[in-house]
Structure formats: structure tokens, C-alpha cells
């Protein structure tokens, strides 16, 4: 297995870093929080626990 030159390691690091930043930004700006507004208050249930010590 031949060794890779240091410049190609740097190039790989830059490519993977840019793809990570690209996909993270796409996921961040495509996130739509409006679907959780209606169900957030309905799903919370408070149960009173009576402990008998």
C-alpha cells in the first residue's frame, strides 16, 4: 500500500471539512421547528407521586 503525500492528506482534510460544513449548514437551515409547537404542551403529563415513607 503506497504512502500518500502530505499535500494529499491536507487536500482530503479540506474536502471532508468542507463537506461537513456544507451538510451541517444545509441541515441547520432546513430545520422546521413549527411541527413541534402543537404537540409540545399536550405530551407533557405531570403525575403526582405520593410517597409513603
Q: Which key features would you list for this structure?
A:
53 residues, mainly alpha
Task: Walk me through what this model shows.
It is a single-pass membrane protein. F-type ATPases have 2 components, CF(1) - the catalytic core - and CF(0) - the membrane proton channel. GO terms for molecular function: proton transmembrane transporter activity. By secondary structure, this protein is mainly α. It is 47% helix and 0% strand. The protein has one helix and no strands. It has one helix at residues 6-30. The longest helix has 25 residues, at 6-30. It is elongated and about 70 Å long. The mean pLDDT is 77.
Number of helices: 1
The best one-word shape is elongated
Uncertain segments are none
Strand content: under 5%
How big is the Rg? 24 Å
**What's the total count of β strands?**
0
Amino acid at each position: 500500500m503506497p504512502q500518500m503525500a502530505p499535500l494529499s492528506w491536507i487536500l482530503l482534510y479540506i474536502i471532508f471539512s468542507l463537506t461537513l460544513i456544507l451538510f451541517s449548514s444545509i441541515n441547520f437551515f432546513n430545520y422546521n421547528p413549527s411541527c413541534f409547537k402543537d404537540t409540545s404542551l399536550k405530551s407533557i403529563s405531570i403525575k403526582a407521586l405520593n410517597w409513603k415513607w
